[in-house]
Specification:
This protein is α+β, with helices and mostly antiparallel strands and about 200 residues long. It contains eight helices and seven strands; from the N terminus they run αββαααβββαββααα. The strands form two sheets. Strands 2-1-5-4-3 form a five-stranded antiparallel sheet, with helices on both faces. Strands 6-7 form a two-stranded antiparallel ribbon.
Length: about 200
């Protein structure tokens, strides 16, 4: 097999995902460039040394708000499960953030001995906010497809806050529709009968 000179660790370092390699006891062996850059953005000092940090403790501290068992990584680190993926929330005094953790067992060449695990920790908070916005938009669309309480006399529509709105204001609030105003031929004939003959001529031409 041709040796390109590109090593496994170098490839991981080029990936945009935040990746760490941990040993069978759960201690970090190495982290890639994206992991370090993301840590700097979150306020971790540049001088901080990740190698030797217990990743299992980091994960348990982050995931405790979501009620996950503290030994979820054990199955991967012991080779009982080759892979797992979890989404979880982590709250602090200032904010709540969402993460995805993926972990895969790393085996020795014989395929039996566990050498550790490759873990990818991703902050998906922004994606979750976008997802929530999409759900709210879909809820608005559903409202317009459902039954709308409309006044039989003035044609105003009652919204979800029990406020009566004109049709124009209701649609402007719940959609991206903008209105321009015109007068239909029937209303012109009723309000301005003197122009009816002009409408009749235009319809015949």
């Amino acid at each position: 097999m041709h040796n390109s000179g590109i090593h496994f660790i170098e490839i991981i370092d080029l990936l945009r995902q935040n990746i760490a390699i941990i040993d069978p006891r759960g201690f970090i062996v190495s982290v890639n460039r994206s992991w370090r850059l993301h840590s700097l953005e979150k306020g971790v000092p540049e001088s901080f040394e990740w190698v030797g940090v217990n990743f299992v403790q980091i994960y348990n501290a982050l995931a405790v708000d979501d009620g996950y068992p503290p030994n979820e990584l054990d199955a991967v680190l012991e080779g009982r499960e080759p892979f797992f993926c979890k989404e979880f929330k982590s709250s602090s005094r200032l904010e709540t953030r969402c993460f995805t953790l993926e972990a895969s067992t790393i085996y020795s060449p014989d395929g039996k001995t566990v050498k550790g695990a490759l873990v990818c920790l991703t902050d998906i908070t922004q994606n979750k906010l976008l997802e929530q916005n999409h759900l709210e938009t879909l809820a608005q669309i559903y409202t317009l497809h459902g039954l709308l309480p409309i006044c039989a006399v003035c044609k105003k529509i009652r919204d979800e806050h029990d406020i009566w709105n004109s049709i124009e204001s209701f649609l402007e609030k719940h959609t991206k529709v903008e209105f321009t105003h015109d007068i239909c031929p029937e209303c012109i004939r009723r309000l301005y009968p003197e122009y009816s003959s002009l409408l009749d001529k235009s319809s015949c031409s």
